[in-house]
Specification:
It is a single chain. The chain is of the alpha/beta class. 46% of the residues lie in helices and 14% in strands. The protein contains 45 helices and 35 strands. The strands form seven sheets. A ten-stranded mixed β-sheet has the order 20-21-22-19-18-24-25-35-29-28, with helices on both faces. The longest helix has 25 residues. It is globular and about 100 Å long. The chain starts with a helix and ends with a helix.
């Protein structure tokens, strides 16, 4: 088959059905059952021999004791990953205490066969007890050691742990530089081994990184060349190269640039290696880079200067479903070029990240096998194939598995033209035993580099070999029978009930049977990308329309190219607004009585329609909203997720609730389909009629969405679209008393205007759900991995041209690492490309319009004048016809200098001292915004310190802070950033509905009393300061129940009833479903200080207990029951009141007011509250719904950042 035909096979097998791939591998395996049985028997004998006679290496012994199924093993991995790069001693001490003090080292003491491992355990146990807060009774050694440390100081512990981590790194790294590695290699070379050297270094972030790695490889080749004897690459040492280390944008989207820039670099290194007569291996990388890697490999191999050289090697990962076809392609390429290639077959190093990426992207399947045993089968089948290709391939089998080694030897027979390989520090006794018995060649793969660069390599090695299912872990565990350790993978696969691992759901099934994951499109897959580009081409010059009638017509042009006409929108006239309001109001009763299941089915059909029409929607998002293709894919997927999520929530939770009436949905231009859809479908499935007002800049997307909504079965008289000017159309809608509520996403200033209009014209209890802006920060301490932090800073600040509500505006760097991170950040920013987002290679498109561009540039010019510029990406002349703003980074002397949101690609940077972290969080809180916060730290205690104090709606740890996923990271802020509840969260539909048998608000007179005391404001501020501590108490309900017992009898019964009603809103954080490797939790918190103004004693008591139970402070009208309840509790105060609102509603620090009164009084109260500056204050009328008293916070943690996906590996253990 020609090369291009095999490439089509490779591409076609990317996500091929796992059972189909496995069946093909089993059929192609040239071993009879009897032959396989003999191999398994021989392998079992080898395992038994290794257990009884072998001397395991230190790392094998270490991993046998500290596997990743143990808390201690994970702690050591995290500690080793971070410690050696931390420059400041306070953070070093915090990191050591964080990882060592809490673990149970004592249970490992004396259990290892290695004296060194036992000695390390002893030291760790002592250190843990020294740093721990609790002492074991009778532990004299600990008390003695504490006294010793007290005299010697914490530097003793610090130095000891740092040295221990260096020793650990020494076991994995052959040398800190190539000279040291070559010297250390002599001992094994004298015993007959040879080496392949790997210069530590992962993906380059900057051009400087790539150049540094290139020079490192060049120097290493020159040094290794002196150890080469002759030109037989099989016996000479070699080098392994990572393509991603040689180019800062080694990504499929940058294919043209990569081929132009990277191929000459690799060819130069390869020629250098050829002249030395050494092997030159291209390391394997992530699955989505495979196609690009094959392009680079072929281009380099076709360089005529490399003709006749047999030392070029390629690493192939057997866990990939395309592995066998890749071998066919390499064999065919070698034949066409009339040379021999080296192929190193490995199991694979990125399994956990491949699983997660496929889940995140919503792919139909996985590019890797989901079981270790099927990967073992693939390895054996690929090995069999390689041994049949030795005319053009020199096979290199990298494995620590006794069965795999035995199988290779058996399949090779007398043909010894291959070699075995192992990692430095791993598999020593296995390979030595086999080499002595069979005399085969063995090469050691040895990393070279300083220990600070060890992270990625170390984590991959520990994950591969420290998991319970790995051979290295099992070989020393005598509780596991040798027959199991050496089992035949083909027989094991045949015995499976199903090929796919049932503990790892396919990406479409990620959220369970009630909700299908949104379909994804991988832009790294050439056929997928080509198909999208072809489908989108139909809409490259198409025009759309929105609105109808004789209103003002606005032409819509592409913000990336104002000469590109996208369509036109007709503004709704007053008569159309009136018609829509009347029609929606008339249709509401019928729609509200439509069964929930029928309404939900409409949403499911809409989701399917969105996916079917995705190419058109991608084109619209690009041309009308200036979105890159990657952002457009995310936009459509989020809209689909909203449909399916709200449909599922409605089926599960709306049986006893009904819609409110006609809701107005006002959506923004930055998510013109996703947020528009989320607002509308949530309101509709809840049983409301909807009038949708899209942003002026993006009405065409909204109009196309509404047509699809109607096609999905949502009635035209229930859903109306009114495009036009915000003040004219939106302003009219929010002032009409027929409107029952408003859902809004936009600026804080606009939200305040809408709330004032609602207070003046709508019912006093009309809901206003607002998600507004924020001064979003990211805190990066000195334990953060700079490469990860820079990756996430770039995405958070500059993706979507910084036009996301969640985008990073304020970067807070610990001063100890700020210079290094800023250097890397500047270099990485220079690699970004700005331009027409229709091109998949573009990273940053335009801002939405000239007004937005002018506002951003004015802000930047002011900072430029003050000399604050750190870096700016230079725009090109091709950007003159669009609204492009180049990304920029500015320095601030204080975070207080940034007092408003700059909605664009502008990042502000301030530094902080490690000792000032608590003050930093308080200052961020003091800004009043509370939308998103990013944290990069390896110290769990610091993360908890920040998350406990930060009044922020969405917090992200060790990942970027954009791209919240519906139902996984429900999105919305608090304070100046919004009212809640969170969009895409479990409580959103609740706010859009009322109980099916809702009671009318009370209409009696307020309680009598005297004017509020003059010190009430001071008491309010004092109570607000105590609220966080009360909110964190997990025993609130118990304390309140005890306090309620002191109330008079009728009040006691009421209190007990209210506590039962409030209990569901006071529990532990809710764990949300999501991709592997993430922790996503939604917690409920009190909003702050509530004013409880009841109609009578019972109303006040209900209000106060509801507020207190949900974590708030209260100022309540004084009654006998209230005074009895609050006596002895640090969470509230009472006062007497004469019913006048002006004084009490002007109190500072109010989060909400619970008021029982007539409609006139309620309306007056809402107007007074709306007139306040600062965050919008909640008004709760009538029966206090606990949902109104809480704010939601989402905490999303990338739990793989410091230690790989240990939990996912456990899913494959027997």
């Amino acid at each position: 088959m020609p090369l291009n035909g095999i490439r089509r096979q490779i591409r076609g097998a990317w996500l091929e059905d796992e059972a189909t791939v496995v069946a093909r591998l089993r059929a192609g395996l040239g071993l009879s059952p009897e032959h396989r049985a003999r191999i398994a028997t021989d392998a079992a004998a080898l395992v038994e021999e290794l257990r009884t006679r072998g001397r395991p290496g230190l790392m094998e012994t270490f991993l046998a004791e500290y596997g990743l199924s143990t808390e201690e093993g994970v702690a050591l991995m995290c500690l080793a990953e971070a410690l050696l790069r931390v420059p400041d001693t306070p953070t070093i001490d915090a990191l050591i205490k964080d990882k060592v003090a809490a673990a149970d080292w004592g249970r490992h003491l004396g259990l290892s066969s290695s004296p060194l491992v036992n000695a390390s355990t002893w030291a760790l146990m002592l250190t843990g007890k020294v740093l721990g807060e609790k002492e074991t009774a009778g532990w004299d050694v600990t008390r003695t050691t504490k006294r010793l440390i007290g005299r010697a100081g914490e530097p003793v512990v610090r130095s000891a742990i740092a040295q221990a981590m260096r020793v650990l790194g020494h076991q994995f790294v052959l040398g800190r530089d190539i000279g040291e590695a070559l010297e250390r290699a002599k001992g094994m070379e004298e015993r007959g081994y040879t080496y392949s050297y790997d210069m530590l270094g992962e993906a380059a972030r900057t051009a400087a990184d790539a150049q540094r790695y290139f020079l490192s490889y060049s120097k290493a080749i020159a040094a290794i060349a002196e150890r080469c004897d002759g030109h037989d690459v099989r016996t000479n040492p070699g080098i392994s190269v990572k393509l991603s280390a040689l180019h800062p944008r080694y990504e499929p989207a940058k294919r043209a640039r990569v081929l132009d820039e990277l191929v000459p670099r690799v060819a130069a290194l390869a020629l250098h290696a050829k002249n030395a007569g050494m092997g030159f291996n291209i390391d394997a990388e992530e699955a989505e880079r495979l196609d690009l890697s094959l392009d680079v490999i072929e281009a380099v191999l076709r360089n005529p200067d490399l003709r006749g050289w047999d030392g070029f090697g390629v690493v192939v990962q057997a866990y990939g479903r395309r592995a066998a076809f890749v071998l066919d392609w390499l064999h065919a390429l070698a034949g066409e070029l009339r040379r021999r290639l080296m192929v190193r077959l490995v199991k694979g190093a990125y399994w956990d990240s491949e699983i997660k990426l496929a889940q995140v992207q919503g792919l139909p399947g996985y590019p890797v096998f989901t079981r270790k045993v099927t990967t073992d089968l693939s390895y054996m089948a690929c090995a069999d194939k390689l041994l049949g290709m030795t005319d053009r391939i020199y096979p290199q089998f990298a494995t620590h598995n006794a069965h795999t080694v035995t199988a290779v030897l058996a399949m090779a027979g007398k043909d010894g033209d291959f070699e075995l390989q192992r990692l430095h520090g791993m598999g020593e006794m296995l390979h030595e035993r086999v080499r002595q018995k069979h005399g085969n060649r063995c090469r050691i793969y040895a990393p070279v580099g300083v220990h600070e660069d060890l992270l990625a390599y170390l984590v991959r090695r520990l994950l591969e070999n420290g998991a319970n299912s790995s051979f290295v872990h099992q070989i020393l565990d005598e509780d596991i029978p040798v027959e199991h350790v050496a089992r035949d993978p083909a027989a094991a696969v045949a015995a499976l009930d199903g090929i796919a691992n049932p503990r790892i759901p396919l990406p479409p099934d990620l959220y369970g049977p009630g909700r299908r994951n949104a379909r994804g499109w991988s832009l790294a897959d050439p056929p997928t990308l080509a198909g999208l580009e072809s489908a989108m081409a139909e809409f490259r010059h198409a025009a759309w329309s929105a609105g109808r009638g004789d209103g003002a017509v606005a032409g819509i042009t592409n913000p990336a190219d104002r000469s590109d006409f996208v369509g036109e929108a007709v503004e709704a006239e007053p008569s159309q607004i009136e018609q829509a309001l009347a029609s929606a109001a008339a249709a509401f009763p019928r729609w509200g009585e439509t069964p929930v299941a029928d309404r939900a089915r409409c949403l499911d059909r809409l989701a399917d329609l969105y996916e079917h029409h995705a190419p058109e929607l991608f084109a619209l998002c690009s041309r009308e909203a200036g979105k890159t293709l990657a952002d457009a894919v995310a936009e459509i997927r989020e809209a689909v997720d909203f449909c399916r999520y709200y449909a599922a929530r409605a089926r599960a939770g709306l049986a006893s609730r009904r819609g409110r009436g006609v809701l107005v949905c006002i959506s923004p231009w930055n998510f013109p389909l996703a947020i528009f859809t989320g607002q509308v479908v949530a309101s509709l499935v809840a049983g409301n009629a909807v009038i949708a007002k899209p942003a002026e800049q993006t009405p065409l997307i909204a109009a196309r969405a509404v047509r699809l909504m109607h096609e999905a079965g949502l009635p035209a008289d229930v859903l109306h679209l009114l495009p036009g000017d915000g003040a004219r159309v939106g302003g009219t809608l929010v002032c009409d008393p027929r409107v029952a509520g408003v859902v809004f996403t936009g600026s804080t200033e606009t939200a305040r205007l809408i709330e004032r209009a609602i207070a003046e014209h709508l019912a006093p209890d009309a809901p206003f759900i607002a998600e507004t802006g924020g001064i979003n920060a990211m805190i990066v301490d000195s334990t953060a991995l700079p490469e990860q932090a820079v990756r996430d800073i770039l995405a958070s600040a500059f993706q979507s041209a910084g036009q996301r509500c969640s985008a990073l505006r304020l970067l807070c760097l610990q001063e100890d690492v700020a210079p290094a991170i800023l250097r890397m950040l500047q270099g990485a920013m220079r690699e970004l490309s700005i331009g027409d987002p229709w091109d998949p290679a573009i990273d940053i498109g335009p801002v939405i319009d000239e007004e937005a561009k002018a506002a951003i540039i004015t802000h930047c010019e002011a900072l430029d004048a003050r000399g604050r510029l750190i870096a700016r990406l230079a725009p090109g002349p091709e950007h003159d016809n669009g609204c492009f703003v180049p990304p920029a980074i500015y320095r601030l002397d204080s975070i207080d200098e940034l007092d408003r949101e700059i909605f664009g690609p502008v990042l502000h940077v301030a530094t902080f001292k490690a000792s000032q972290l608590g003050k930093l969080v308080e200052r961020l809180n003091g800004k009043g915004y509370g939308l998103t916060l990013g944290i990069h730290s390896r110290v769990d205690g610091r993360v908890k310190q920040i998350t406990d104090r930060a009044r922020i709606g969405n917090i992200y740890v060790n990942r970027n802070q954009i791209g919240a996923v519906v139902g996984v990271q429900p999105f919305g802020g608090e304070g100046l950033s919004g009212t809640g509840p969170k969009a895409g969260g479990p409580h959103f539909l609740h706010r859009l509905t009322v109980p099916a048998a809702a009671d009318a608000p009370p209409t009696g007179a307020a309680v009598e009393g005297v004017r509020a005391s003059v010190d009430l404001a001071a008491r309010a501020s004092a109570l607000r300061a105590l609220q966080d501590a009360w909110d964190r108490r997990r025993d609130r309900l118990r304390l309140l129940a005890k306090a309620a017992a002191s109330c008079p009898s009728p009040a006691r019964r009421i209190a007990e009833q209210v506590l039962v009603e409030a209990a569901p809103w006071c529990g532990d954080a809710l764990t949300l479903p999501g991709p592997s490797g993430e922790s996503n939790r939604l917690s409920l918190h009190g909003r702050g200080l509530w004013l409880c103004l009841g109609l009578d004693a019972e109303s006040v008591l209900r209000q106060a207990i509801t507020a207190l139970a949900t974590g708030n402070m209260v100022l309540a009208v004084r009654t006998e029951a209230i005074d009895a309840l609050l006596s002895g509790l640090p969470c509230g105060d009472s006062f007497t009141w004469n019913g006048e609102l002006d004084d009490v509603l002007s109190l500072p620090d109010l989060a909400g007011v619970a008021l029982s009164a007539d409609l006139r009084t309620l309306g007056n109260a809402r107007r007074l509250l709306a007139a306040r500056d600062g965050p919008l204050v909640q008004l709760v009328a009538g029966h206090p719904d606990p949902a109104r008293f809480v704010t939601e916070r989402t905490l999303s943690i990338d739990i793989t950042a410091a230690g790989g996906n240990v939990g996912l590996l456990a899913a494959d253990e027997p």
